[in-house]
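Protein folding task:
====================
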Amino acid sequence: MAALDILRARSVGLGTELLIRATRGICDGSLLNAESGRADTSARLEDWTGVLSLYSADKKPTTVSATA
């Protein structure tokens, strides 16, 4: 009976350890994805800032008409 209790205690400990490792892996992956997303967003904002600086505020808007 004592051996069964020891086995149960070890299996619970192992299950807990696996759960903790899996959770850490998910959290680490989420942090990496968030950092990557922030870098992409920052790069896109810099690109658009460069494009928008080509247009001066004093220019009149150009209208474009299309015919089919």
Observations:
- DSSP finds one helix and no strands in the chain.
- The first helix runs from residue 2 to 52.
- The mean pLDDT is 78.
- The helical segments are 2-52.
